[in-house]
Amino acid sequence: MTDKPWSGARLFCAGVVRNASAGASCSAPPALFERSFSLRESVKLISQVIDALDIRSSGRWFLYSTLVGVAAGVGASAFYVLGQIVIRYTLGEFAGYTPATAEGEQALFADADTPFRPWMIVVVMTLGGLVSGTLVYWLAPEADGAGGNTAIDAFHNRRGDIRGRVPIVKLIASAVTLGTGGSGGQEGPIALIGAGIGSWLGARMKLSHRDRRVLLAAGMGAGVGAIFRAPLAGALFAGEILYSDADLEADVIVPAATASIVAYSVFTQVLPAESRFLTLFGEDLHHTFTTPLELIPYMGLAAAVIGGGILYVSTFEAMGRWFRKLPIIAHLRPAIGAALAGLVGMAMLYGFNGDQRALAVLGIGYGTLQETLTAASGVGATMLFAIALVKILTTSLTIGSGGSGGVFGPSMVIGGCLGAAVGLVFQQWMPGLGIEPEAFAVVGMAGFFAGVARAPISTIIMVRALTGDFGLLVPTMLVTTLTFITCARWKLYRRQVPTRMDSKAHRGDFLVDVLEGLLVRDVFHRDRKVMMINESMTLDEIVHLLADNHQHYFPVVNREGAMVGIFSDDDVRSYLYNDSIWRLAVASDVMVSEFVSVSPDDDLNTALKRFTSMNLDELPVLDPDQPGKLLGMLRRKETIAAYNQRLMEHKQAAADA
Fold this sequence. Notes:
Layout: H1 8-21, H2 39-53, H3 57-95, H4 118-139, H5 148-157, H6 165-179, H7 187-204, H8 209-227, H9 231-240, H10 253-267, H11 295-325, H12 333-351, H13 366-374, H14 376-379, H15 381-400, H16 408-429, H17 437-453, H18 456-467, H19 473-486, E1 533-534, H20 539-547, E2 553-557, E3 563-568, H21 569-573, H22 587-590, H23 604-614, E4 618-622, E5 630-635, H24 636-656
Parallel strand pairs: 1-2
Antiparallel strand pairs: 2-3, 4-5
């Protein structure tokens, strides 16, 4: 074995040996500390160590996923903390307003000592939209809006490539948008942040396009799993959100699960100790499904959720088109959207006599949703319906204008409030069933987002993880199935493709080898008589022989009967007008001695390639155990016929499936 230059791993081992021999404790060699490493160089060094250790594929992916999980966990932590800072020193400082939070979320900072000034919320939101819009459209225009579409598009159409600046811009812009009261969620930003981290790490480690896509999806799942404290749901979300039909990117599940668990472990360290391992909406949400008769009002809930989902997507897209047509620079659009959303929020506040729960139409809105999940009757059906409908408008204004925020959080609020309102109505209409409006809120959350995001399984698991409630799986499956089937034309993530067969990322994966399993022995006819020519036969004899024969290719054999060459009737025709050499030339002068052939055990793919490479119509079939023994001739048209027959069988099997 030849010596190779030492890699980073070998330098490390050498340093350990030197230090150990000197009686020192085991440590990295001095060469690694000669200068400080940049982040890019550190990632490159890690990649070199992984290569040097020659870790097999599964081990590599464990290390890659862990690295993505750590980075995504740090990104989620930074996003969460920055959002809290923005809330405290914008809405809290100037408007005296701190949005209520879910039970599992606790503010990191004490409330500001500022009286409540509602109209300052509009001012703060407008300025927040201006800052966010300027930052996004100046540095990374692809980071506008929800963020999920950008990550999905990068997976399918951009070889897993997201610019390195995008996660940083998205983190800051989203923290500003949501922290100043813009209506949106955390899932879209953190999905793009995690995806960008995975893409950047894949590029730095010089991974293939496929592997970079996997790391992108793993980062997306890690971010979502961390911020919502639902690692398994984050992993399934990463595999399911890429497609609009019932399909799953199976290759990303294990890397995404690993990265998501690591990211969750990192993220929880920034939370207060008392809420570190709480589910987002607490641990007191326990409901049961007692009788199949309850499925009747749940079907009514499905109808309401379907209508709300269609309205949500239609309004969201209409607002996006309207803002794109505005004759102003893109940087200003999020400010206008935020200002309009703020005015709508003020209308809700004063419409409900200053009840701050109505301000769930702004920001993330989890505080009012928390009360809805625990005491829906205290909020009331009227306010719940109003919040659900107006939240659609404020979210469309905030994100449709280019503001940076996600669509999952608003979907939870819309679906939860709509579900609780429907539950309150059915509670009055059907008192004998013992309907719990809070249970309808839980099911409404899952059903709403499953329909418009085209991700039923991960949404069910996500809602279960957010609420800790596993007693409603039957009605949840019913409602999510109905909404998923019905809302096929209305989806929030326009960059989704129906299935893996429609994705450029899998171009070539689904080309069916219709000749797989077919061998030459299955096609060529052994009993077909083939005229063979002795190598010493004169050209004169060959010409007269061809006159009474319709064979096109003529194998040439020696005295022992072994095939030594081949010629075609076209080769002979070139001598027809030169009869002076007919008695001088023999078959060995006409034949091609360097010929291609096949054996009975070759597959038809091999035969077809040889037909096309030499533009031949027939190939000699030789016995592999007896060199030169001709078994017959394989015709090109027979191979094409076998191909067409197998293709028809595949089509028929697909039609019957």
